[in-house]
Specification:
This protein is an alpha/beta fold and 304 residues long. The protein has helices at 3-13, 49-52, 57-60, 89-101, 115-118, 134-137, 179-193, 207-215, 226-235, 261-276, 279-286; strands spanning 64-69, 72-73, 77-79, 86-87, 104-109, 125-131, 140-155, 171-175, 200-204, 221-225, 240-257. The protein has 11 helices and 11 strands. α1 (3-13) packs antiparallel against α8 (207-215), α4 crosses α10 and α4 (89-101) packs antiparallel against α11. Mean pLDDT is 88; it is low at 1-37.
């Protein structure tokens, strides 16, 4: 496929609502590839008055649970084929939470790095594949709901002969504000300290641009959450391939304004309810990411 053709294919395929089998932590789950599917139907979920009562009026007063999400991160959160409707397993979880709270749900598209600073003001919560890190815990409270590793992806056949154990001098594409960007920044410092060429980190606001950079040869490799990497590979017609093993499996969590204990407790109890009654498992199965499931929602877990 020509470079122009690859760009067009990626732009179209990554913005559709097609559900494709992906791996959350190095395993393959079964799912559907029917592009007409719209995710899990949350309409049967009923309000839990006791859990809803935990929410502060700042969340409930308008009757809407507003959720910040970077909708370029399929299959977690992305836009359907109409180019405006948010879909994905994080979106379905957002809808399920809202149903438990007795609220309407509204996912608001944002760039990834702009979400956490706006939680508690523009957004009630943020659900956008946030990996829990010590640095983020200083700025935000977290409630865990998923686990995922990180994966390197190259063009099929690894034409640039990328060695993940030595990325000095290599062009690496990452999404702005992600843990993968932070890791590559550290790798750059290590390369410089060793007297080697720095990692050429190419940071983009949109994951689709990160994927395109490798597919078109502007970068040699990209680094992203494992479910997102798997989805990108399938959506680009196997133009890309995983390089090496998945690394750094870690919890992902809902972002809540720092110190907002009421909202954090309500989210934790609602997530646990969805886990215990089987709804959570059904949502993950719908999107083919069951291997990222956890059994306990925790507030501000201890992480390295």
């Amino acid at each position: 496929m020509s470079i122009k053709g690859i760009k067009s294919a990626i732009a179209v395929s990554l913005s559709t609502a097609m559900l494709v089998a992906v791996a959350a932590c190095g395993t393959t789950d079964s799912t559907t590839s029917d592009s007409s599917q719209k995710g899990f139907d949350t309409s049967s979920i009923t309000k839990d008055s006791a859990i809803a009562a935990l929410l502060p009026s700042s969340v409930t007063q308008d009757g809407v649970l507003t959720v910040g999400a970077d909708t370029s991160y399929a299959p977690a959160e992305f836009l359907a084929s109409d180019g405006k409707t948010p879909v994905g397993f994080d979106v379905d979880l957002s809808k399920a939470l809202a149903r438990v709270f007795g609220l309407k749900e509204e996912t608001i598209s944002s760039t990834f790095d702009a979400i956490i600073p706006a939680v508690g003001s523009k957004y009630d919560i943020g659900i956008s594949s946030f990996t829990v890190t010590p640095e983020r815990l200083k700025a935000i409270d977290f409630v865990t709901y998923f686990k995922a590793g990180s994966t390197f992806v190259v063009k099929k056949g690894n034409p640039d002969k990328v060695d993940t154990s030595n990325l000095c001098g290599v062009k690496v594409a990452v999404q702005t504000g992600t843990t993968q960007e932070a890791e590559m920044t550290k790798a750059t410092a290590a390369c410089k300290a060793a007297g080697k060429p720095a990692v050429e980190v190419q940071s983009s606001k949109m994951q689709t641009d990160v994927t395109t950079a490798v597919a078109t040869g502007k970068a040699s490799v990209f680094y992203a959450d494992t479910p997102i990497a798997g989805y990108a590979i399938k959506q680009t017609g196997d133009t890309l391939a995983v390089l090496g093993e998945d690394v750094g499996v870690a919890p992902e969590a809902v972002a809540v304004r720092k110190g907002d204990t009421k909202t954090a407790q309500a989210v934790q109890k609602a997530l646990q309810k969805l886990m215990d009654d089987g709804t959570y498992a059904k949502i993950l199965k719908t999107w083919g990411v069951s291997s990222g499931a956890i059994s306990k929602a925790e507030i501000n877990p201890t992480v390295d």
